[in-house]
Amino acid sequence: MTEPATSALQMAALAPLDVAPRLSRVRQRLGEQADALLVSDLSNLRWLTGFTGSNGWAVVAPTELILVTDGRYGVQAAAQMAELGVDGRVLVGGTSAELLEHLVASTANFSTLAVEADHVSHSQFLQYQESMKAQLVSTSGVVEAERRTKDAGEVARIAEACRI
Questions:
Q1: Distance between CA 23 and CA 44 in Å, rounded?
Q2: How large is the average pLDDT for residues 9-21?
Q3: Residue 36 pairs with which residues in a beta bridge?
Q4: Burial class, 142, CB count within 10 angstroms (exposed 0-12 / middle 13-18 / buried 19+)
Q5: How many C-beta atoms surround the C-beta of residue 117 within 10 A?
Q6: d(CA 82, CA 80)
């Protein structure tokens, strides 16, 4: 006889995800490579902020986090970040031009900006380079390296997935 599927109530008993400390780990890993990091990969964005939408970027600055997304996800992004204890601002753009304006404004005070080279097309990189004041620095694996270390909530979810 097989065990019944895990209910939502049983899943709620899992250790909570510890998302808030991830930001400082990424900042530390970024180190001296650049003043800030532009996160564009959705898997990295979700791990870092808890945001599950299909369109967004995060600017990881030394003292703040800014999530930029479109009008479909503004309320959702703020709620998901707050639920997981992630301290950050959400900026919403209604058009591609407005989204780019938010990214440009969010990075205007930095002399260097790291860009996830593995997740940005050449065309996007050129658009950022043309629009942003900061010198762009290609990086690889900054967030992914930190994603390898699992917190208790992640380990519990992996164990539950194996059990199922």
A1: 11
A2: 75
A3: 113
A4: buried
A5: 14
A6: 5
**pTM of this structure:** 0.87
Look at residue 10 in the predicted model and tell me its pLDDT: 52
C-alpha–C-alpha distance, residues 123 and 108, integer Å: 20
Question: Does pLDDT of 77 surpass 70?
Answer: yes
Are 110 and 36 within 8 A, CB to CB?
yes
Q: Which two tokens stand for residue 25?
A: 């780990």
Cβ atoms of residues 79 and 51 within 8 Å:
no
- Coil/strand/helix, residue 103: helix
Structure confidence by residue, pLDDT tens digits, 129-154: 999 999 999 999 999 999 999 999 99
Q: Tell me which DSSP letter residue 2 carries.
A: P
- Tell me the three state secondary structure of residue 156: helix
Element housing 48 (H / E): helix 42-49
